[in-house]
């Protein structure tokens, strides 16, 4: 079984430790914290599917899309996509896969809220290319590093070239 490190992961016996009492555009008050912190909530099943897709994509970068509720930052669906760039250093979501994912998300009452891709030789932090190509400031940018023995997954928001890491909270459903 593959183990993975998740920066900022919080889980308590299958329930979220993150309290969702007050929500503002993907932000939640984190228990024990002061003020608001960005949070992306993801089911453990989606987390595992993302890791499997990234590992299967080696030696190239893998990519995919996440759909869910933008207001709460909850991931409800995962769409693995092909890397049209077929490169170990770049990714490009296949346009046909993007169209299919967008249509499916819309028909299921959700919306695309972010993109996932792997870094094969570097850490799980947005590269300068990732920052320049960030298409939507409202999206979540999830990166999986396959550089080390154990994959690492982290999530960011990129707005106007500014990178902000957000808490990635896993939940059992």
Characterization of this structure:
By secondary structure, the protein is of the alpha/beta class. 18% of the residues lie in helices and 36% in strands. It has 3 helices and 10 strands, in the order E-E-E-E-H-E-E-H-E-H-E-E-E. It has helices at 44-56, 95-107, 128-132; strands at 5-6, 23-24, 27-29, 36-43, 63-69, 74-81, 111-119, 140-145, 152-159, 162-171. Strands 1, 2, 3, 4, 5, 6, 7, 8, 9 and 10 form a 10-stranded mixed sheet that branches. Strand 8 (140-145) and strand 9 (152-159) form a beta hairpin. The longest helix is centred in the N-terminal third of the chain and has 13 residues, at 44-56. The two termini are 21 Å apart. Mean pLDDT is 83; it is low at 1-36.
Key attributes of the depicted protein:
alpha/beta, 173 residues, disordered N terminus, 3 helices, 10 strands, single chain, 36% strand
Number of beta strands: 10
Which segments are poorly predicted (pLDDT under 50) over 5 or more consecutive residues?
1-36
Helical segment tally? 3
* β-strand amount: 35-45%
SSE pattern: EEEEHEEHEHEEE
N-C termini distance: 21 Å
List the helices and strands and how they pair.
Layout: E1 5-6, E2 23-24, E3 27-29, E4 36-43, H1 44-56, E5 63-69, E6 74-81, H2 95-107, E7 111-119, H3 128-132, E8 140-145, E9 152-159, E10 162-171
Parallel strand pairs: 1-9, 4-10, 7-8
Antiparallel strand pairs: 2-3, 3-4, 5-6, 5-7, 8-9, 9-10
């Amino acid at each position: 079984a593959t183990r993975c490190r998740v920066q900022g992961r919080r889980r308590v016996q299958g329930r979220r430790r993150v309290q969702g009492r007050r929500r503002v555009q993907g932000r939640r008050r984190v228990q024990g914290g002061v003020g608001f912190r960005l949070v992306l909530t993801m089911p453990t099943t989606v987390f595992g599917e993302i890791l499997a897709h990234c590992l299967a994509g080696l030696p190239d970068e893998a990519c995919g899309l996440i759909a869910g509720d933008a207001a709460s930052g909850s991931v409800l669906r995962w769409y693995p996509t092909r890397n049209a760039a077929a490169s170990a250093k770049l990714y490009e979501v296949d346009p046909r896969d993007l169209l299919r994912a967008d249509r499916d998300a819309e028909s299921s009452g959700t919306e695309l809220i972010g993109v996932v891709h792997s870094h094969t030789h570097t850490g799980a932090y947005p590269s300068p290319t990732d920052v320049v190509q960030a298409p939507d400031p409202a999206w979540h940018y999830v990166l999986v590093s396959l550089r080390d023995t154990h994959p690492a997954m982290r999530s960011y928001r990129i707005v106007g070239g500014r990178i902000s890491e957000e808490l990635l909270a896993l939940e059992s459903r």
